[in-house]
Design a protein that fits this description.
Layout: H1 9-12, H2 44-95, E1 104-109, E2 114-119, H3 120-124, H4 138-147, E3 154-157, H5 160-168, E4 188-190
Antiparallel strand pairs: 1-2, 1-4, 2-3
Length: 193
């Protein structure tokens, strides 16, 4: 006699077809390949390779830092040079002049205790050239240059050793003794460079 099915878990399941009750062939497992970040424990040889790479990279870094310092020093030097040039140009604009070496005539005024410098190009060359020999003495030449409105290119005080030199100068035989003590007249000196 057939028994009544009881309400169990098995009873609630639909009965499988007897044909399906036959063992199914298992489906092949499908593996999905992908790259994923997972932990990897380094071997001893990998760690040694990393140590070598680290040493090389460290040396490269130090070389780069050294080059950087060298280049920074070069740029600092260039910056300073340009700053100096800017200061010079600014000074030239503000002052309206700069000091340059030029060929000059030096005339000493012993009485005024001043040494005057006149541009040689203004006095000895060009259409207004002067022959200094026609004046006889440096005093006369200096007096003419000052009255003819020649602007001295520079002047400085006569140093004590230069002022004392006039006492030891040999007297000029062509000079008139009534002009004063020997060597009392300033000398004219032409410098060219």
């Amino acid at each position: 006699m057939p028994t009544k099915p009881t309400k169990t878990k098995e009873a609630t399941k639909p009965k499988a077809d007897k044909k399906k009750a036959v063992k199914k062939k298992p489906e092949p497992i499908k593996l999905k390949r992908l790259d994923e970040r997972v932990r990897h424990n380094f071997s001893q040889s990998e760690l040694v390779d990393f140590a070598r790479q680290l040493a090389k990279k460290y040396r490269t870094l130090r070389t780069i830092e050294s080059e950087k310092k060298s280049i920074a020093a070069q740029y600092t030097s260039r910056e300073k040079q340009v700053g100096i040039e800017i200061d010079e140009i600014t000074s030239n604009v503000n002052d309206g002049f700069e000091m340059r070496k030029k060929p000059c005539i030096e005339l000493k005024d012993y009485k005024g205790k001043i040494v005057y410098y006149f541009l040689a190009d203004d006095i000895l060359e060009g259409p207004d050239a002067i022959d200094p020999q026609i004046f006889g003495t440096a005093d006369d030449l200096l007096a003419y240059l000052m009255t003819a409105e020649y602007e001295p290119a520079g002047e400085r005080p006569l140093r004590p050793d230069e002022h004392q030199q006039e006492l030891f100068d040999e007297p000029d035989p062509a000079a008139d003794p009534s002009d004063g003590p020997p060597g009392a007249t300033p000398e004219a000196k032409v410098e060219t460079s």
